[in-house]
Recover the amino acids of this structure.
């Protein structure tokens, strides 16, 4: 997508072919900066500290992390070590495990001298597939927006949570792909952007990328959505997901579940956009079985922003000594989800619905 008119992906190999470059998302929206990842450790730290984040991008970065590791040493032990290190960075997004399994399955049978080149090629393929999937799901999802416009005859108001835009993927995004596709096709849209405490991915990242693309949007405090829905100001909700089970339970950024409840109560369609690698076919019950990341309390007690003088500062919000809990994700049961928007089409959030478009996954 575009930054100041220039096309970017969120991750790419450097021209010298020995490193990877990423956009440092911890510095947005106030500063656009790229960072060079030179080795396995750099990639692991970038994921853990959320310089890169969003399920598909975490997976792509892990794949390049393996490639960087193989360039340094390509023994079985080094491959094992790389996968273990990267898997330990963040627990919830299934794309991380999916990408590592794919890299390992490909590389392990190869002679060690062939592994580095194969790893770089496979990481690039994972990135290209992500872009292709997101473009396709954007097309499918945009039809839902067009249908709403035809029924309503006025701009379509869409609420989204967290950042499931191009910054969360290699390009295009998941929840925002249908919105970009609709907008580019001339469909009038307006996006309600949940700020998404505690890390503010909505306020900092979604607002920034929508602004870069020229999409009309309004940032709202996290608790505003229910009120807007009661007053007819939301036509549909589209969110992303970090892991969706084979039965259609949706794990996504903390706060998503409350939006789904409010949407259900107000008969507002609640869609989840995801590429195939975000489906965890091994799990059925998301509430019971998906591991929920808990991050540092500091992300809740402190906040970072820019002063009027242009200085980036972090300040404390809470009384000294008050404990804080920081659950990063929650699970929305399938019964609250109107449909899953995938690269293969829109389907019901159920085992039957998913198997209808991914028949090869039938056990
Ligand atoms: O903690 P993050 O920022 O990595 O969380 C990921 C998200 O931004 C969302 O939950 C998103 O909707 C899923 S990724 C497309």
């Amino acid at each position: 997508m575009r930054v100041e008119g220039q096309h970017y992906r969120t991750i790419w190999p450097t021209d010298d072919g020995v490193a990877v470059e990423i956009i440092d998302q911890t510095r947005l929206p106030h500063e656009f900066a790229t960072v060079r990842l030179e080795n396995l450790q750099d990639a692991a730290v970038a994921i853990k500290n959320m310089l890169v984040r969003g399920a598909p991008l975490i997976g792509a970065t892990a794949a390049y992390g393996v490639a960087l590791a193989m360039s340094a040493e390509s023994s079985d032990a080094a491959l094992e070590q790389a996968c273990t290190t990267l898997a330990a960075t963040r627990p919830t997004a299934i794309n991380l495990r999916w990408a590592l399994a794919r890299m390992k399955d490909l590389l392990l049978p190869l002679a060690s001298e062939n592994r580095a080149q194969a790893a770089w090629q496979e990481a690039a393929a994972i990135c290209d597939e992500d872009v292709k999937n997101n473009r396709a799901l954007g097309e499918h999802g945009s039809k839902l927006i067009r249908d709403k416009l035809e029924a309503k005859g006025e701009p379509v108001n869409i609420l989204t949570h967290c950042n499931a835009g191009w910054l969360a993927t290699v390009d295009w995004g998941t929840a925002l792909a249908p919105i970009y596709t609709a907008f580019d096709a001339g469909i009038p849209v307006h996006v309600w952007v949940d700020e998404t405490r505690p890390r503010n991915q909505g306020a900092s990242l979604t607002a920034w990328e929508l602004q870069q693309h020229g999409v009309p949007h309004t940032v709202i405090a996290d608790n505003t959505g229910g009120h807007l829905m009661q007053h007819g100001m939301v036509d549909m909700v589209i969110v992303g997901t970090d892991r969706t089970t084979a039965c259609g339970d949706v794990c996504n950024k903390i706060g998503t579940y409350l939006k789904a409840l409010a949407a259900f109560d107000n008969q507002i369609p609640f869609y989840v956009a995801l590429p195939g690698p975000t489906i965890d076919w091994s799990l059925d019950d998301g509430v019971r079985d998906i591991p929920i990341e808990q991050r540092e309390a500091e992300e809740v007690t402190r906040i970072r922003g820019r002063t009027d003088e242009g200085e980036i500062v972090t300040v404390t919000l809470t009384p000294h000594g008050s404990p804080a809990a920081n659950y990063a994700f929650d699970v929305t049961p399938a019964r609250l989800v109107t449909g899953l928007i995938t690269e293969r089409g829109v389907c019901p959030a159920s085992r039957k619905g998913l198997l209808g478009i991914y028949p090869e996954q039938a056990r």
